[in-house]
Amino acid sequence: SKLTNLGHLEMTWRSRVQLRPLLVRILHKSRLRYYGKPEKTMDMPYQAYFEVADGSGMMSMVLWNSLCPEWYNSMKVGTVLLLEKYAIKDSYPFRTQPTPGDSQMKRFATIEISLNVRNPPAKISIIPEEMVKPEWGLPEVKYRFITRSELDGLPHNYSCDVIGLVTFVGRAERARKRGHCEDFWLYRWAHAIDGTSDQPFILELFATSQPDVFERIHPMTYLVCTQMRVVRDLSENPSSTIYLTTSNESQIFITGWHKGQPYTKDTKVQNFIQWMKSQSEAEQIKKTLIGGYYPFPRPPNSFSDY
Fold it and tell me: Which is one GO molecular function term here (predicted)?
């Protein structure tokens, strides 16, 4: 009875001295961001943002500094949180936005929930899933899974989720960050098949805040990637191929990490598992590769075209 909701919060937050508790479910989770600079002395300059929702809609929630190492790994997509102490601030306008699985959900974009160690010190509780009651009206996590046969018809920058059997994984490579001469992104290429096409998903997987998963992507593992973006080469290079790349909100899961994840209920995920049961593991292993340099998108066939 003492709870408020996100919709009411948006209308009344400026006029209220004390904010009532919130009960929300995490729908999206960003990678962990380090924003430290040599000239600034801050113990733990970390930040992560989440999209949280209740029955009234969805809002961004930002986790700051020393709360990140304490809470980040516990706050998974699907986790239900009780927030008793938090701050409300005007939202940061330049943050990337995940594409919600439920396109009908209302988004509160003008403000965001801020969780910090002080002013006020955040009070966060994780509610175990078995204690979550239907009458709370919390939305379920929804996905936008696509099959490989659907991929060719999708536009550039379309956001989607995929599941497939890994048939190739390349070595880890580095790409220099734009505007940061000494910093690099770490990424690797992977192929995954789902039985709906002769062609695999070609996946450019940047290291998210899941190093344990990123390092263990091997052939023959079931790979799930969420919030991937479609990349089409919009130039006139005829040898280019459509592929998927990770976004700030992407999560990657492999065999051993799937249990209890909300996507296991998705129809396309279950269809893929049924297809895998009909496959010969020995035959699939013959088609797998690991390591090596993978130049992609491929350059033109002749130097004059290049």
Answer: single-stranded DNA binding
Residues near 63 by beta carbon (within 8 Å), at least 6 away in sequence:
47, 48, 49, 50, 71, 72, 75, 115
Its pTM stands at 0.90
| Domain span including residue 300 | 148-305
Domain match, 102 and 169 both: no
Domain match, 121 and 167 both: no
**Residue 257, in any domain of the structure:** yes
In the chain (306 residues long), the average pLDDT of successive 10-residue segments reads: 88 80 96 86 90 95 95 96 94 88 91 93 95 94 96 93 96 82 86 95 94 93 96 65 93 94 95 94 91 79 75
Looking at the fold, whether 166 and 99 belong to one and the same domain comes out as no
What's the one-letter identity of residue 279? Q
Residue 192 contacts residue 224 (beta carbons within 8 Å): no
Token pair for residue 270? 């279950």
1 in a domain, yes or no? no
132 and 226 housed in the same domain: no
Provide the residue type at 115 as one letter.
Answer: L
